[in-house]
Amino acid sequence: MEWAAKEGGLMTPEELLRALAGFTGSDTLTRHGLTRRVLMSKGVVLLAEQARTHCLTDLIVSHQVDPRVRFEPFQVWTLTVDATTRSAVATMTDGNSKLPVTQQEIPWTDFPLPEVTLWLVQEGELWIMLLPGEY
Fold first, then answer.
1. pLDDT at 16 over 60
2. CATH T-level assignment (fold) for domain 11-20+30-134
3. Which of 56, 62, 86, 97 is the most exposed place for a label (fewest CB within 10 A)?
4. Which residues lie closer than 8 Å to 112 by C-beta, 6 or more apart?
5. What pLDDT was estimated at residue 8?
6. Is 32:123 a contact under the CB 8 Å cutoff?
7. The whole model's pTM is what?
8. Would you state the torsion angle of the CA atoms of residues 116, 19, 2, 56, taken in this order, to the nearest 10 degrees?
9. Cβ distance 126 to 98 under 8 Å?
């Protein structure tokens, strides 16, 4: 993959997967740029920076205007990339059902991994976006 080049100090997909697997908790949270109510874990921030995928965290935040999404206090977001067409689908479930609450097709992406899952968990008035291993 072209993305794997070390230009700009970016990790290769393999390095990124290893780094993401190492996150088992997060003592530091960063506010999302679009809303003060969503905080992101260190793992999500690393993913967004290293995969240049702030658009994924923005997509998750933007779907919170949909009442079907907003009223789910535990959201499982999965981005699945088709390596052939470089298109992707972002799907949100409630974590219990395989049926999506919502999904969005993405016609083209340079996201470097075949799939990634993020959780969005409501904590009072705030929402915490994290990797599953950080829960």
1. yes
2. Nuclear Transport Factor 2; Chain: A, (3.10.450)
3. 97
4. 1, 3, 4, 13, 16, 51
5. 58
6. no
7. 0.90
8. 40
9. no
